[in-house]
Design goal:
alpha/beta
Length: 160
C-alpha cells in the first residue's frame, strides 16, 4: 500500500515550472579612451563584479548569459569561477524572446548586458514596456523576473 501511495504521489505532484531571470548591466568600465568600444572593467567595476558574485552565490544560478564584451564577461567571471558555469554568449539584437523563455523553463538565469539592452530585455520577458534605458553611470540595477505558469512578476532593486 505504501509503495502505491509513493508512486501515486510521485506522479501527481506537479513539477516546479517556475523560471527566475536576474538581469544586470555590466559593472563599471574604464572610460579613459572614448573610442574604445570594448573597455575592460575599472577598479570599482572589479569590486562590483566580486559583489555580484557574493549576491548570486546562493541563488542556484543554472545558466549565465552574457554579451561578448570584456566588461560583461568580466562582470560574471568571479561568479562563473565560483560555481563552475561558462557564460553563454548572446546578441541582444537577435534574440527570439519566446524561444528564450521556453528554453529556460524551470531555470534560474543570470543575464548581463548593457544600459541600452537590459531594460528592453526585461520588457520583452514581461511583455510590457515598463523599464527605460539605464543611466550611463548606474551599474547597480538588478531586475528580477519570475515566471510561474502564466503568472509573471517583476521588480527592480538597487544593489550596491
Amino acid at each position: 500500500m505504501r509503495l502505491l501511495l509513493t508512486i501515486f504521489l510521485a506522479f501527481s505532484i506537479p513539477e516546479n515550472d517556475c523560471s527566475t531571470f536576474y538581469l544586470i548591466r555590466h559593472a563599471e568600465k574604464i572610460r579613459t579612451n572614448k573610442s574604445d568600444r570594448d573597455p575592460a572593467l575599472n577598479e570599482k567595476g572589479i569590486i562590483r563584479a566580486m559583489n555580484w558574485k557574493e549576491y548570486f552565490i546562493d541563488k542556484e544560478i543554472s545558466k549565465i548569459y552574457s554579451t561578448n564584451y570584456k566588461r560583461t564577461l568580466e562582470t560574471v567571471k568571479p561568479l562563473q569561477e565560483e560555481i563552475g558555469l561558462s557564460a553563454i554568449l548572446y546578441s541582444p539584437s537577435s534574440i527570439d524572446y519566446m524561444d528564450f523563455i521556453a528554453s529556460n523553463k524551470a531555470e534560474v538565469i543570470l543575464i548581463v548586458g548593457h544600459s541600452n539592452t537590459i531594460p528592453n530585455f526585461v520588457n520583452e520577458l514581461i511583455n510590457d514596456q515598463v523599464y527605460t534605458q539605464i543611466d550611463d553611470f548606474n551599474n547597480s540595477n538588478l531586475y528580477i523576473v519570475n515566471m510561474c505558469d502564466s503568472k509573471i512578476s517583476h521588480r527592480l532593486i538597487k544593489v550596491n
